[in-house]
Amino acid sequence: MALPPPLPASPDPPRPRRRIPEATVARLPVYLRSLLEVEAEGQTTVSSERLAEMAGVNAAKVRKDLSYLGSYGTRGVGYDVEYLLFQMNRELGLTHDWPVVIVGIGNLGQALANYGGFGDRGFPVAALVDADPQRVGQKVGDIAIQDVDSLPALVRDQGVAIGVIATPATAAQEVADRLVSAGISSILNFAPALVTVPAGVSLRKVDLAVELQILSFYQQRRT
Amino acid sequence: MALPPPLPASPDPPRPRRRIPEATVARLPVYLRSLLEVEAEGQTTVSSERLAEMAGVNAAKVRKDLSYLGSYGTRGVGYDVEYLLFQMNRELGLTHDWPVVIVGIGNLGQALANYGGFGDRGFPVAALVDADPQRVGQKVGDIAIQDVDSLPALVRDQGVAIGVIATPATAAQEVADRLVSAGISSILNFAPALVTVPAGVSLRKVDLAVELQILSFYQQRRT
DNA sequence: ATGTGTGAATCGGTTCACAGCC
DNA sequence: GGCTGTGAACCGATTCACACAT
Question: What domains can you pick out in chain A, each with its CATH number?
Answer without folding.
Answer: 22-91 (1.10.10.10), 100-211 (3.40.50.720)
